[in-house]
């Protein structure tokens, strides 16, 4: 009796048959995803992000462990860390602008530093959630929005790292022109943080591009499955 029959594997099984079966299963997965996206289910997960605070209510459901494929989870956790790091740096930037104002610095610089608070929801909408959605849904439209969003995020970091005096950013120009020693040291730290965040976001953008480029489209999959 042939060895294949003993283990229950057909003798005429070929690589082409296996690939055909995998393509069929991939097509079914895509059809199920499309149906789930088109049918609104009242039993779906409730929004949990951002956390409820005062008048702010959760808008989207966000769960990296449940929604993101395992190979991409480490990347998404790192990107999430970069988003929360951005929040901390923006708040730190405002505190340095305030301290500079207290020691005789520009009032306009301090006032404009609050404008960059828009970067907190802006970063989530522009780059973080687009990348998150593209990883979860494998949607081409979200993927391209993720590319553009990450590029805008890097440009924002560059602008803040440069730190033109009088425009609210506590970066290198502002730090090197500061006369107060304490503010100078803290501004140098701020400029360094903006520079490090910029470099990290750039590296993550390159990794995201490579991840998307190396992921071959599944046979029979629709071009876009964005909700």
From TrEMBL:
<keyword id="KW-0472">Membrane</keyword>
<dbReference type="InterPro" id="IPR007273">
    <property type="entry name" value="SCAMP"/>
</dbReference>
<keyword id="KW-0812">Transmembrane</keyword>
<dbReference type="GO" id="GO:0032588">
    <property type="term" value="C:trans-Golgi network membrane"/>
</dbReference>
<feature type="transmembrane region" description="Helical">
    <location>
        <begin position="110"/>
        <end position="132"/>
    </location>
</feature>
<dbReference type="Pfam" id="PF04144">
    <property type="entry name" value="SCAMP"/>
</dbReference>
<dbReference type="GO" id="GO:0055038">
    <property type="term" value="C:recycling endosome membrane"/>
</dbReference>
<feature type="transmembrane region" description="Helical">
    <location>
        <begin position="181"/>
        <end position="206"/>
    </location>
</feature>
<feature type="transmembrane region" description="Helical">
    <location>
        <begin position="81"/>
        <end position="104"/>
    </location>
</feature>
<dbReference type="GO" id="GO:0015031">
    <property type="term" value="P:protein transport"/>
</dbReference>
<keyword id="KW-1133">Transmembrane helix</keyword>
<feature type="transmembrane region" description="Helical">
    <location>
        <begin position="144"/>
        <end position="175"/>
    </location>
</feature>
<protein>
    <submittedName>
        <fullName>Membrane-trafficking protein, putative</fullName>
    </submittedName>
</protein>
